[in-house]
Amino acid sequence: ETVTKEELGGASVHAGGKSGVAHGSYPNDVDTLRAMRTLIDYLPSNNDASTLPRRPVTDDPNRSVPALDQLVPDDPNSPYDVKDVIREIVDHGSMFELQPEHAKNIVT
User: Fold this and answer.
1) 38 contacts: CB under 8 Å, gap ≥ 6
2) Region of residue 62 (phi > 0: left; psi between -120 and 50: alpha; otherwise: beta)
3) DSSP conformation class of 44
4) d(Cα 3, Cα 100) in Å, to the nearest integer?
5) Residues 30-55: what's their mean pLDDT?
6) Structural contact between residues 43 and 64, judged by C-beta atoms closer than 8 angstroms
7) Which residue has the higher pLDDT, 71 or 23?
8) In whole angstroms, what separates CA 102 from the centre of its chain?
9) How far apart, in whole angstroms, are the C-alpha atoms of residue 14 and residue 60?
């Protein structure tokens, strides 16, 4: 059997849904750095609550989301894309999914 280095343990194996060892792969260094900056923006710089940045609320926490009535079917056996639901609920539709190619039946 002939196996390439990529098939044996490249990005397609580890981030492409087979092993799940890597959390993502990107086409180039610039896209990789942009993704890592986005991820780090979601994380606090430390665990001291008194030093966390305070930002003005720009997405009303009490807003209604009528789109959920169409996104989630009445029949619990009907499929739907939970990512669409998450985007409607989170602030300004902003989410950063970890391991998007691994275990596509869950959102990480």
Assistant:
1) 96
2) alpha
3) -
4) 25
5) 88
6) no
7) 71
8) 11
9) 39
Beta strands in 1-108 (DSSP E): none
- The total of other beta-carbon atoms located within 10 Å of residue 14's CB is 18
Tell me the C-alpha distance between 61 and 42, whole Å. Answer: 18
**C-beta of residue 57 within 8 angstroms of C-beta of residue 70:** no
Between CA 15 and CA 103 the distance in angstroms is 11
Global pTM reads 0.72
The single-letter code of the amino acid at 51 is: T
Cα 91 to Cα 101: distance, rounded to the nearest angstrom? 24
Q: What value does the mean pLDDT of the chain take?
A: 87
Higher pLDDT, 87 or 53: 87
